[in-house]
């Protein structure tokens, strides 16, 4: 490590402005003594300069570099943000991965990260204490990897050019009192260069409460939010243990940290970071909500004045070796460390949080990331979550990760020209819709179905907020109880859910796939096809001219504003049913045909079905009357002739630029049919992708020669193979997404132009990344 190029930077105005003197007196002589050659040394000249210095320095070197940094946490924050948010240039552009190692010399005011790594013995440590990191570097000791917290601050979804800011913290991300303190204390820096200015600013803000809607996001690996129980002296699963935890304000205090147990040498606000070292990458949150006080009645100026004393008690206890986490209320609202009353502080360990400040509460709109203050626009929000190893590379290469909080079962990208950045993600209870604009994603709709989702389809009506002010989200979803749902949200209306297909009239087996009708006329948003384990293809008319709802549960409107404004309930969709010989797995439509669906079954047969062929004759008909073509996967046929039972299922996909090309997987094989050259239903090309069984097959909508196959076998891990139609027998491009025991639950291509990108669901995560195939 000592042989890496060495850059020295110090901030001459941080802390009490003694960094330069300290470096001249102690740091440079010690480096000389250790025979370590400094390649470049700089004093920062302005705010933001440190980031530029380090970015420009690393552009000149391919491998690891070391930066000796004399500053506080703010300058470190600038460097981390510059390195993670700017694209690599110079020789770095072609370098796969290398690290920037930091040697900290604490010259700032609070030096939270340094004091957490090198715990001070007293408040007045001498030069030897400040040189501990430098000495460790000279000895070539271990390097501590940093966990980082990324916060996206987004403007309201309704704004035409909704914008995002991204802040990366290595220490603290906060709102409420802590953000107000940091906001106000900067103006006090000149007269109070030490930590006293934080106390003055705290006192000036101590009676404030902050109104916001908050969600706590689970840690990806454990999938739960944990809360500290001072009686058991351990973390326990939060009472509201269904993944995401909703928290109601107002808040007196809300702060999260990574890497640090303290924000000043003695202010141990998140002491459990060092006492219960997190097993997984996570955030520690400390929050104080006044309404937990048993004497709280209502939010008045007097109530806030009275509570100020209690907030002060929390801050004071944090200075007493982090004892605030043991404080409880007595029945009459006094603060004690005894008894069984509610805790004054809620100490949370989780994967992230979302903060949606109340429009009318200006102070609630402040957000602090390592001392840098941001303002959340009215109607906007901030989402903060931890990021893991390799996340810097992710950000540089346009990778986006979505943590759903619970297992993801279905991902479906919107293929409409005006919706190419939209992605629907469905899990245990809900369908979430994201606008994906690397390196970030923004959730723009959330539909809580309360049941596991088994299939999704995007309506051709959907338009992204990126494309129009009059945007619309329209999706159909199937749930594990075989119910179907039309989910809508638009620029003028909130989430609306309309249930149909329940009861006797609908499916009575798991709905495995669905798609809207093809073609380019208006009907394509009117009809939606569903296929299920019950061997039925059902084509639903979402806008029937007649309401024939007998025997069908009445329409359900469980959310949204449209429910009350609609004069009459919407008529129940009617279904046209075609029965097949075996359980059905996939259904596809095509942009050039409004009358056909491509249906695959679990035995590897594929049917091209003209569902409008002769409705009189074949109503409630069978596949024989309506199927135009039956394609047979020879491998599947031989298996079934030999009576070999298999858990393999057939999965078919229709290439959208060419109506004659169909691709499918069955078992280890994939097959491609060219319908313009019929060969008795046999494929024109076959190959092997995963010897122990491929599962899903999808064509790339933006580069139609590419198709991707994923295996669901857990023996491989989460892997996707990319094939090229022009070289079907060549080895596929293998993309390893996650090791065993992960497996790909579902995947789809994004429809945005440029480098093709995949969205892959595994576990609780969806990762969206450019496939980078030459
Ligand atoms: N030459 C300069 N002139 C003015 N400001 C500068 C200069 N160099 C750096 N800065 C700014 O100084 C600010 C304070 O630096 P830093 O956060 O490192 O010290 P601090 O605030 O005293 O310590 P801490 O963050 O540990 O409390 C940073 O936000 C940085 O942008």
UniProtKB/TrEMBL annotation:
Taxonomy, superkingdom: Eukaryota
UniProt GO molecular function: kinase activity
Domain DAGKc: 1-155
Pfam family, one: DAGK_cat
InterPro entries referenced in this protein's UniProt entry, alphabetically: ATP-NAD_kinase_N, Diacylglycerol_kinase_cat_dom, NAD/diacylglycerol_kinase_sf, NUP37, WD40/YVTN_repeat-like_dom_sf, WD40_repeat_CS, WD40_repeat_dom_sf
Location of region: Disordered: 551-572
GO cellular component: nuclear pore outer ring
Protein name per the record: DAGKc domain-containing protein
């Amino acid at each position: 490590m000592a042989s890496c190029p060495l850059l020295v930077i110090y901030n001459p105005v941080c802390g009490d402005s003694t960094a330069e003197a300290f470096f001249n007196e102690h740091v440079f002589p010690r480096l000389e003594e250790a025979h370590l050659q400094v390649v470049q040394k700089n004093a920062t000249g302005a705010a933001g300069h440190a980031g530029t210095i380090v970015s420009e320095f690393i552009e000149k070197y391919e491998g690891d570099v070391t930066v000796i940094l004399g500053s506080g946490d703010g300058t470190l924050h600038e460097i981390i943000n510059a390195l993670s948010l700017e694209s690599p240039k110079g020789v770095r552009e072609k370098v796969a991965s290398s690290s920037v190692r930091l040697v900290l010399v604490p010259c700032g005011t609070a030096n939270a990260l340094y004091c957490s790594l090198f715990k001070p013995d007293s408040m007045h440590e001498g030069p030897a204490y400040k040189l501990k990191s430098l000495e460790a570097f000279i000895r070539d000791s271990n390097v501590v990897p940093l966990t980082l917290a990324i916060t996206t601050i987004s403007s309201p979804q309704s704004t035409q050019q909704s914008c995002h800011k991204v802040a990366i913290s290595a220490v603290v991300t906060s709102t409420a009192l802590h953000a107000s303190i940091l906001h106000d204390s900067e103006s006090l820096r000149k007269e109070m260069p030490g930590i006293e200015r934080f106390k003055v600013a705290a006192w000036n803000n101590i009676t404030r409460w902050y109104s916001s809607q908050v969600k706590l996001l689970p840690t990806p690996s454990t999938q739960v939010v944990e809360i500290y129980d001072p009686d058991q002296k351990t973390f326990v699963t939060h009472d509201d243990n269904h993944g995401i935890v909703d928290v109601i304000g107002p808040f007196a205090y809300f702060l999260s940290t990574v890497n640090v147990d303290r924000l000043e040498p003695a202010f141990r606000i998140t002491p459990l970071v060092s006492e219960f070292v997190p097993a997984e990458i996570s955030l520690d949150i400390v929050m104080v909500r006044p309404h937990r006080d048993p004497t709280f009645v209502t939010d008045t100026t007097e109530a806030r004045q009275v509570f100020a004393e209690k907030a002060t008690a929390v801050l004071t206890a944090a200075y007493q070796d982090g004892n605030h986490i043991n404080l409880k209320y007595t029945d009459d609202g006094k603060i004690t460390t005894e008894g069984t009353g509610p805790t004054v502080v809620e100490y949370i360990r989780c994967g992230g949080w979302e903060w949606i400040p109340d429009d009318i509460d200006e102070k609630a709109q402040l957000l602090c990331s390592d001392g840098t203050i941001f303002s959340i626009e009215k109607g906007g929000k901030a989402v903060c979550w931890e990021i893991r190893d390799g996340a810097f590379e992710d950000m540089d290469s346009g990778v986006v990760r979505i943590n759903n909080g619970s297992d993801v079962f279905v991902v479906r990208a919107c293929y409409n020209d005006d919706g190419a950045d939209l992605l629907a993600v469905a899990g245990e209870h809900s369908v979430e819709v994201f606008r994906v604009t690397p390196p970030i994603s923004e959730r723009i709709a959330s539909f809580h179905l309360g049941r596991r989702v088994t299939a999704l389809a995007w309506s051709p009506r959907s338009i992204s907020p990126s494309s129009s002010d009059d945007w619309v989200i329209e999706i159909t979803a199937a749930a594990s109880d075989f119910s179907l749902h039309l989910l809508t949200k638009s620029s003028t209306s909130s989430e609306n859910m309309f249930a149909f297909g329940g009861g006797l009239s609908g499916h009575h087996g798991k709905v495995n796939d669905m798609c809207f009708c093809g073609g380019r006329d208006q009907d394509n948003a009117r009809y939606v096809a569903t296929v299920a384990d019950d061997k039925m293809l059902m084509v639903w008319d979402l806008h029937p001219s007649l309401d024939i709802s007998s025997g069908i549960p009445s329409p359900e409107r469980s959310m949204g504003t449209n429910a009350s404004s609609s004069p009459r309930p919407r008529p129940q969709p009617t279904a046209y049913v075609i029965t097949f010989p075996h359980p059905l797995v996939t259904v596809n439509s095509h942009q050039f045909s409004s009358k056909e669906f491509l249906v695959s079954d679990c035995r590897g047969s594929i049917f091209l079905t003209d569902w409008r062929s002769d409705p009189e004759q074949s109503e409630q008909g069978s596949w024989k009357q309506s199927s135009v073509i039956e394609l047979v996967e020879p491998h599947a046929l031989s298996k079934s002739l030999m009576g070999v039972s298999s858990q393999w299922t057939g999965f078919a996909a229709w290439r959208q630029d060419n109506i004659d090309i169909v691709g499918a997987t069955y078992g280890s094989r994939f097959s491609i049919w060219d319908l313009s050259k019929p060969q008795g239903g046999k494929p024109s090309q076959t190959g092997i992708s995963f010897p122990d069984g491929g599962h899903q097959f999808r064509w790339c909508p933006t580069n139609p020669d590419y198709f991707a196959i994923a295996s669901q076998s857990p023996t491989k891990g989460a892997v996707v193979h990319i094939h090229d139609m022009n070289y079907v027998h060549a080895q596929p491009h293998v993309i390893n997404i996650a090791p065993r025991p992960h497996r790909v639950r579902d995947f789809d291509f994004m429809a945005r132009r440029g480098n093709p990108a995949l969205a892959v669901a595994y576990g609780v995560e969806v990762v969206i990344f450019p496939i980078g195939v030459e």
